[in-house]
């Protein structure tokens, strides 16, 4: 009988989480490289290049691909002939593995998990607990999938109960535009069809752990209903022109994965969950001989793509910037930010709102007049870093606070990722402000532009505190200009038309 020792299991979980924090799955990197090769949209091609360069830098530096190091999801298939050498539960062992990984002093990962989710929302400080899924199977091995799922993509999950006989592809394609760009495309779409509501959602999540193989499927042809759906949904979604980071382009999806389960005659449950540009998962087995041994991938597996800012990028001095200066910027223009940049995301915005409601105003030391604010929750620094990986968070979560911030603080611009809502765009237009985006999935690359960092308010909020960064040539793109023109609206609209003009044959990939 196979005996799995407690320490072997815990250390394997910890090692796997460290591994996936800085190594992308190679099949994902190869798919991204192919997307970069065929991309014709300059903005999308630039974004994919940043993501690929960030991935290579993270692999070499052994630092997180993304500042959002995720909620840990673990799938266990436990052989029924296994015995355990432990006095604790599976959940307790898994959580200890998470705790070790996220508090590792050589590569500390961001703790994002909040207890009392509908109330105080207090950070657990070690990213526990993990979300554990357990299945008993025949055999004497323990099969493990460890994943770290970012909040930006997780928030875009969708579920419905369609009527029997409804068109699944129609519903999925209808949902994707409403998901916006907060899930950091290009990525994968996991789809669960059948079972019950919770079964469909679980299948959609588990489908994202499968390898990228849509090209092989296209070449051999579809043999089943689900395979035909994969190809149809992939082609129809990419034809929408959403593109990398929602800027407009040829590739929105790298693959579509589908899992199915028999369902009730009255039901057709369908769930969709996207994976982002920080796709992180690892599959391995334990057989009782010791902890997992993980072999690093060869850096030669990464495409030889080097990102550099375009020659016509505009350098901006944040310390002397005025509102009038920002009125010259146009959607799609590349800027290189220099000087002092304040940060603030959900919790900080909520605190500021409460302070204004009570008549107190901004906290001591925080002056936003003629300043820009960056929506970010960085990873803690190690080994002399000014800050750890510090990519943008999804800006739409700050939409409800934006008009207040622009009205009350003198703020002239914001930096984040993904689109803004219609009311927020109107507020930006009314206040003649601007909204810029950094590339989601390029957190380590962005962090290299941050030379100094200090907390100036709400230190108790941890990664959600207000920091002051000093940046040098931090790359951003103008997403909404002072006239309210949005790149996230114009870019996909333009590329949807261009793709229609290309006239790509059905079920045939774009050629390089």
Report on the structure:
With 512 residues, the chain is an alpha/beta fold. The chain is 32% helix and 23% strand. It folds into three domains: 1-24 and 65-149, no CATH class; 153-286, 60s Ribosomal Protein L30, Chain: A, CATH 3.30.1330; 314-492, fumarase. It has helices at 6-22, 26-38, 42-61, 90-102, 151-154, 168-178, 197-207, 214-220, 225-238, 323-326, 346-357, 399-408, 422-430, 443-447, 487-502; strands at 3-5, 71-79, 83-85, 114-115, 122-123, 131-137, 142-149, 158-162, 187-194, 253-261, 268-274, 281-286, 314-317, 334-343, 372-374, 413-416, 434-437, 450-457, 466-480. The protein is globular, with a radius of gyration of 23 Å.
Short key terms for the protein model shown above:
single chain; 512 residues; alpha/beta; 60s Ribosomal Protein L30, Chain: A; fumarase; 3 domains; five-stranded mixed barrel; four-stranded mixed β-sheet; 32% helix; 23% strand; disordered C terminus
């Amino acid at each position: 009988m196979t005996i799995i020792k407690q320490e072997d299991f815990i250390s394997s979980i910890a090692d796997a989480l460290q591994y996936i924090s800085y190594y992308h799955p190679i099949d994902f990197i190869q798919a991204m490289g192919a997307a970069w090769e065929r991309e014709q949209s300059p903005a999308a091609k630039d974004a994919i290049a940043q993501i690929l360069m960030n991935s290579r830098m993270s692999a070499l530096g052994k630092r997180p691909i993304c500042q959002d190091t995720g909620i840990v999801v673990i799938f266990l298939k436990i052989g029924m002939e296994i015995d355990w050498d432990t006095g604790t539960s599976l959940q307790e062992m898994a959580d200890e593995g998470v705790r070790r990984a996220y508090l590792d002093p050589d590569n500390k990962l961001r703790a994002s998990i909040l207890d009392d989710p509908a109330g105080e929302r207090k950070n657990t400080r070690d990213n526990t607990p993990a979300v554990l899924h357990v299945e008993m199977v025949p055999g004497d091995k323990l099969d493990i999938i460890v994943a770290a799922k970012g909040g930006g993509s997780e928030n875009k999950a969708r579920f419905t109960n369609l009527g029997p006989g409804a068109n699944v592809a129609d519903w999925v394609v209808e949902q994707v535009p409403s998901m916006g760009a907060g899930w950091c495309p290009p990525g994968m779409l996991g789809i669960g069809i059948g079972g019950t509501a919770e079964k469909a959602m679980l299948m959609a999540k588990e489908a994202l752990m499968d390898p990228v193989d849509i090209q092989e499927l296209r070449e051999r042809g579809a043999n089943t209903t689900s395979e035909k759906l994969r190809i149809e949904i992939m082609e129809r979604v990419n034809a929408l022109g959403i593109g990398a980071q929602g800027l407009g382009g040829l590739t929105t999806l790298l693959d579509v994965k589908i899992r199915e389960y028999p369902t009730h005659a009255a039901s057709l449950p369908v769930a969709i969950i996207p994976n982002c540009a920080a796709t992180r998962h690892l599959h391995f087995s334990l057989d009782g001989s010791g902890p997992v041994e993980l072999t690093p991938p060869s850096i030669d597996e990464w495409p030889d793509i080097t990102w550099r800012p375009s020659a016509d990028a505009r350098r901006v001095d944040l310390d002397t910037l005025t509102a009038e200066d920002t009125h010259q910027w146009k959607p799609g223009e590349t800027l290189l930010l220099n000087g002092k940049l304040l940060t603030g995301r959900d919790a900080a915005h909520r605190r500021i709102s409460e302070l204004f409601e009570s008549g107190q105003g901004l906290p001591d030391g925080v002056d936003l007049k003629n300043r820009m604010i960056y929506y970010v929750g960085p990873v803690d620094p190690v080994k002399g870093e000014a800050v750890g990986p510090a990519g943008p968070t999804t800006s739409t979560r700050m939409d409800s606070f934006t008009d207040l911030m622009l009205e009350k603080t003198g703020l002239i611009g914001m930096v984040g990722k993904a689109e803004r809502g219609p009311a927020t765009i109107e507020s930006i237009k009314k206040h003649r402000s601007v909204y810029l985006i950094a590339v989601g999935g390029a957190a380590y690359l962005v962090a290299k532009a941050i030379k100094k960092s200090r907390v100036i308010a709400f230190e108790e909020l941890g990664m959600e505190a207000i920091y002051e960064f000093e940046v040098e040539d931090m790359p951003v793109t103008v997403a909404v200009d002072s006239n309210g023109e949005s790149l996230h609206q114009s870019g996909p609209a333009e590329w949807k038309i261009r793709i229609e003009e290309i006239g790509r044959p059905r079920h045939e990939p774009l050629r390089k």
